[in-house]
């Protein structure tokens, strides 16, 4: 009887291990991409037919940016994948890129589709950012579904 309990405990432990490993792998795939140069930005945004990209322009000194960052991490955990990408650009580290994209204040968000800005948000709260991210992810998912 004790041997049976040990085998059952080992199976539960093994199943738990695999579930935890799967969660870890999923969380590793879903992450915000840090953009450090114009080249990085071009390669991320110019993928024709790829998912929309929610771009977050931020700065380390920006208190509203710090307040929205945990919300963005949660959005990334929930939505980032085949239907949405999330990128973060520090305007202090890449001021030329921020200027090229017309960023004059932070936090600012852009949504890119096929390398083009399709939506711009500035100074918005978490609810507005969530709505935009969910809408663009759902739109892209629907487009993929129709193309099959």
TrEMBL record:
It comes from the Eukaryota. Keywords: Disulfide bond. The keyword Zinc-finger does not apply. Pfam families: Thioredoxin. PROSITE patterns: THIOREDOXIN_2 (PS51352). InterPro entries: Thioredoxin-like_sf (IPR036249), Thioredoxin_domain (IPR013766). Signal peptide: none annotated. CDD domains: TRX_family (cd02947). SUPFAM superfamilies: Thioredoxin-like. Residues 1-138 form the Thioredoxin domain. PANTHER family: THIOREDOXIN-LIKE PROTEIN 1. This is Thioredoxin domain-containing protein. It comes from Polarella glacialis (Dinoflagellate).
């Amino acid at each position: 009887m004790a041997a049976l309990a040990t085998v059952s405990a080992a199976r539960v432990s093994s199943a738990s291990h695999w579930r935890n490993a799967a969660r870890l792998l999923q969380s590793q795939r879903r992450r915000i991409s840090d953009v450090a140069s114009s080249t990085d930005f071009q390669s991320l945004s110019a993928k024709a037919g790829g998912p929309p990209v929610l771009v977050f322009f931020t700065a380390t000194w920006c208190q509203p940016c710090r307040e929205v960052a945990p919300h963005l991490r949660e959005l990334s955990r929930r939505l980032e994948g085949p239907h949405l990408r999330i990128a973060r650009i520090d305007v202090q580290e890449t001021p030329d890129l921020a200027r090229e994209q017309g960023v004059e204040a932070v936090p600012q968000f852009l949504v890119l589709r096929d390398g083009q800005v399709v939506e711009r948000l500035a100074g918005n709260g978490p609810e507005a950012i969530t709505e935009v991210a969910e809408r663009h992810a759902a739109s892209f998912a629907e487009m993929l579904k129709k193309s099959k």
